[in-house]
Design brief:
Layout lengths: L1 H13 L13 H19 L12 H4 L2 H17 L19 E11 L2 E9 L3 E11 L2 E11 L2 E4 H5 L17
Antiparallel strand pairs: 1-2, 2-3, 3-4, 4-5
Length: 177
């Protein structure tokens, strides 16, 4: 028996042990998005430009391909038309202006390749942003964002899916004012 325990370190040294990757967390993209948002809000005050989580280079990493494409289309419409797109506020702070204090990101439900994540924080009052997460390509990504405005919930995906008046993606050129 003593001989076995003396050989144990040698056995582990020459035999490969199975390695287990940490299971991806549905909350991770929301946490990363808020780290970016907090830097972005601080950058506004200090004059350093930081892109929000829904713009490149972040959105491709944090969001599903489909949601990222909807944001890209909205951005293209704004560039081509000079008008406001279908999203008039920052969905991560549920408003045009705000701050993120006392952030708490928690997992709601999880079922297979879908999960719900909540971000609760203080801005000009208590705010809750709900993230609908999807496992895509082995990583959790944001598939939709639910904001509450004046007691009514709306999803960013539904707002970004609304039709546009013009755009190269519609083969109908925009005329800038």
């Amino acid at each position: 028996m003593i001989t076995f325990f003396r050989l144990l370190p040698a056995i582990f040294a020459i035999s490969p042990l199975p390695t287990f990757a940490a299971e991806p967390s549905p909350e991770a993209p929301a946490r990363e998005a808020y780290a970016i948002t907090i830097r972005q809000l601080a950058g506004i005050d200090s004059g350093k430009a930081v892109q929000p989580p829904f713009r490149p280079p972040h959105r491709q990493r944090l969001m599903t391909k489909e949601l990222s494409a909807l944001f890209a289309r909205d951005e293209l419409f704004m560039k081509e038309s000079g008008d406001q797109g279908n999203i008039a506020a920052d969905p991560f702070i549920s408003g045009q202006d705000g701050e993120v204090k006392q952030l708490r990101v928690t997992l709601g439900e999880r079922s297979g390749e879908r999960a719900t994540v909540f971000a609760d924080f203080m801005s000009f009052g208590p705010v809750r942003v709900t993230f609908r997460m999807k496992l895509e390509g082995g990583a959790w990504r944001i598939d939709d964002i639910v904001n509450g405005v004046d007691g009514k919930d709306y999803t960013v995906r539904s707002e970004l899916s609304r039709p546009y008046e013009c755009g190269s993606f519609m083969k109908k050129p925009c005329r800038k004012p």
